[in-house]
Amino acid sequence: MLVAAIGLAVAPARLAAQDHGQYTQTEIDTGARLYSSQCSTCHGPNGDRISGIDLRRGQFRRVVTDDDLMRIVTTGVPAAGMPPFAFQPAELTGIVAYIRAGLDSSTPSIRIGTASRGKAIVEGKGACLSCHRIGGNGSRVAPDLSDIGAARGVDMLHRSLTNPSAGMLPINRPVRITLKDGRTVNGRRLNEDTFTVQLIDDKERLHSIEKRDIRNFAVETTSPMPSFTGRLTSDELADVIAYLVTLRGQP
Amino acid sequence: MKVEEVEEVEEVEKWKKWKKWGRELHALGALVVVLGSIVSAQVTPARLERAADEAQNWLMYSGGYFSQRYSPLKQLDRTNVKNLEMKWILPNQVFGAWQSSPLVVDGVMYVTQRPNDVLAVDAKTGRVFWLYRHTPSPDARVCCGSNNRGVAVVGDTLFMGTLDGRLIAIDTKTGKAIWNIEVGDPKLGYSITMAPLVVKDKVLVGTGGGEYGIRGFVAAYDVRTGKEAWKLHTIPAPGEPGSESWKGDTWKTGGGSIWLTPSYDPALNLTYWGVGNPGPDWNPDQRPGDNLYTASVIAVDADTGKLRWHYQFTPNDPYDYDSVQIAVLADFTYQGKPLKSMLWANRNGNFYVLDRTNGKFVSGKPFVKVNWMSGFDPNGRPIQTPQPAGQPTWPGNQGGTNWYSPSFSPRTGLFYVTAWEDYATIYRREFQDYVPGRVFGGGGGRQLLPVPGAPGVRIGRTTPINNWTNAAGYSSVIAIDPVSGMHKWKFEQFDMSDSGVLTTAGDLLFTGGREGYFYALDARTGEMLWKASLGGQIANGPVTFSVDGKQYVTTISGNSLVTFGLRD
């Protein structure tokens, strides 16, 4: 299965695919055009709009192999509302190539270094685990990175390392809450709805707070994480990204 | 005398007989209600005409022909709504978003579930009488989920449209099919997701498939036989009025889908249909012209299928602003004169008041942020202000509102709609060849998001974690005064909502949202009076009814059909 290979190869999906000689840029480009016209209405531009399926991350309900993928596209899944597509063989190959390229036909400009060196930096010089957690080690105050290589593209990882506030997803924003009884709760947002907010505080405790009990509720847009531009060399950044890409939530 | 006229006279005679029969049965029905018996009378066309006044029942998709989704029931009111409790829950055994709106006929609830099942349920207990199952052909093509939004009823017969473009008549007592006809060819992308509407002796439907380059139509079929009575294309053929709004052969793949239930004014004998996007969706360069009657409302004679008037909300629509929303009909005084109005909160972000006798534009005003147009000319044509390539358009692709039902309360005089706020799309146009049965989109778009690569709002809620947050958009229920166009109040939620709105004579407003809260608001002020945390996303509009003198409210949350009533 190519997706597993991508994780081991420590490179973005498309590079791995090319290295293995599996799909050509022409095939990927063909797939990109077809995908945007035929597939993205339902699957979304990022391939994650259908519950349980994330094409970019290689997460499927029924598919394992490339042949499976071609068969599903051809027959559809009528019970789930997916119609059959009468594609030509070259088009089918293109669709699979594009999906296996992580729905990214552009050449990533982000450099990927060596994962083993990156691991050493994450655990040492970078002191990443003083806030983050990977595979059971480190703090829970910042997001657990055990599956970050599956959850984020290389460009997003690079942005988070060099400009953390610009890369911080809105859900992860720090919240500062003053309750009506005077207590304060500061932490990282985990979930929110109209009436409640869930967070993990700086002592790693989980809180679910009803908004009617809140006097003051601030959601910060500045990340507490420092930028690693200047703290790490560009080679070191490339190594860290190489390591993060391998983290796919499979202990 | 022409053949058509002979048929018309015959139809009138049949109709008179039916009407008489209906009156008799209605009297019997009243007797049955008095006796509190479980025996139910047939639903006659005359009862359908007065459906909105038949407080104990919910006889058609929007409650009545005026589509106000308003009930005269008032046992539940602002003082006792806090005492609601769950009476029963019926889990759907079929996975996927559940957008159906149930009917209730004399204590029996009829609800559809994916892909094309009908359930007959004891409305008081949630226990099931029968299950009808139609398995759509593998040829069925639907862009956006195996949805079915409900059935229509007349006599002893239910009518359901199917994902593979069929219309099926089903016996209300046995759950067996009576007839089953093809409305549109599923191989070409024709499908039916809307609940049909029965008018007199005809059942009316339209077809989805606006993403497949169909040529949309509405059609009427004899309720007893399924024989086609009339058919009207939403895209005119060369030579027909409106055909000048298409160039070359573009009309053949012009779209104009119909995927929600029409409204009907018996006094004018006009049915009102919201028409979907043109094909291809996002590339107007491929279909120059206004593209009538896409993104429009059309008024169609209920007996003949003749087009009486139209009003186009979004000419040459490049945004996928299907104008399929429910046309709400209401009569009130406007600038000192009585107005037979049509109220319309459109996917394009504007709230419209039209004169439903002639389609004249009365007023239009944005109810959410709008930047694709700057105002209206004196005829009500929008002055379009397309945004430069790469720049966001408000409202976004899923619109300022969409398919979920609005409501109008004759008691408050207010129109209520679920709106998507702070939500924009960056559109992209591409040339697209038409291939039969394939998506004919012509581009697409991506949602405007505060962080590149962050999760965006999806078509439905698929996770209990809201990791897109209100930074990607949020919903509100807005109460609009149709006379002034002003917002009377607004009830904001943190996530998006695809919940319709129900109002009652108890001055209550029921709605929900993707977060799985089901609310009762004060229809006059928007104050939240009660809520239940049901967990699953609430889509489509709640309904209310009564059995044995007790009022109930039903909603769908996630994969569950849930009914509330007062504590005994």
Structural features, described:
The complex is a heterodimer of chains A (251) and B (568). Chain A has helices at 2-9, 13-19, 25-43, 66-75, 89-100, 115-123, 148-151, 154-162, 164-167, 234-246; strands at 133-134, 137-138, 174-179, 184-192, 196-201, 206-210, 214-219. Chain A is an alpha+beta fold and 251 residues long. Chain A has a 5-stranded antiparallel beta sheet with strand order 6-5-4-3-7, with no helix packed on it. In chain A, strands 1-2 form a two-stranded antiparallel sheet. In chain A, a hairpin with a 4-residue loop joins strand 5 (196-201) and strand 6. The longest helix of chain A has 19 residues, at 25-43. Chain B is mainly β and 568 residues long. In chain B, the strands form 11 sheets. Chain B has a 5-stranded mixed beta sheet with strand order 1-32-33-34-35, with no helix packed on it. Chain B has a 4-stranded antiparallel beta sheet with strand order 2-39-38-37, with no helix packed on it. In chain B, a hairpin with a 5-residue loop joins strand 17 and strand 18 (307-312). The longest helix of chain B has 33 residues, at 3-35.
